[in-house]
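Hello,

Our lab assistant flagged a job as stuck in the queue for most of the afternoon. It eventually completed. Since we weren't sure the result was trustworthy after the delay, we are filing this so someone can double-check. Below is the sequence as submitted and the structure that was eventually returned. Let us know if re-running is recommended.
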Amino acid sequence: MAFQFSHVIVCELPNSYATSALGLSSPVDMDLARQQWRSYVRSLENLGCQVTTLPADEKFPDCVFVEDTAVIVMGHALLTKPGDPSRTDEIKNMKPVLEKQGLVVMEINDPAAKLDGGDVIFTGKEILVGLSPRTNQAGVDAVSEAFPGFPVTGIPVSGPLHLKTLLTMCGPNTFCASTQSGDSTAMLKRIQKLAKYEYKSLLVSDDMASNVIHMNGALLHKSWTESKESAEIFCSYCSKTCPGEGPTRSIDLDLSEIEKAVGSLTCMSLRYNPNQSIA
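-- returned structure --
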């Protein structure tokens, strides 16, 4: 199942996050940031996941955003080639971690390719890859080569960073998008035009609230405190969903300090199932 995961990888927040993380917009309260991160990790554990926690590395201010380092689909992991050169060594460090997790690990050979994991959405049927400042067409082609069993389509990105920054899946066949800036709905329209399959949509009013995680029968989303209207929509959505057809439980989380570096729920973890043939 595309949205059922047994394992998760996360990384602690380094002190350097507060001063040197890419895209910082305002001062970070590190005590609060770590509190928010711990709540996030506890939520993943409570959903039945075995969590591997990597220690913070002060050389890499963005190391908490582990999702950018790999694309994992059905027990196979493609190491990425970050669009920002400062994150390249994070990929080298992630390779042995993934190999120990019972995953088939692949690498990109094209030196021209740029690929961030935050630009990749696996819908369970196909793979959508954002064409963004961090991911180029050669990166899209690398994903297609790594996962030949699924259609792979490039989606032009609008907004602050990645495809998933403002657009994610909140159910097996449903995308969550925001009406706030127009960037999120613009990408949704491109998916509706370019994707090989049809999808439903759930709209919220807060751009950053459109980044959610649907997994293990639950929906992780931005908190009632930080985005009340969106949280109400998510709670209602989950209450109307039948078991087995999507999330039936909503879990709200504070993200104020994570968002200051254009961070979000999805980018703080790698969620996967080990490859049974090598585990």
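-- support follow-up --
The delay was a queue issue, not a problem with the job. The result is valid. The chain has a mean pLDDT of 96. Residues 45 and 145 are 33 Å apart (CA to CA).
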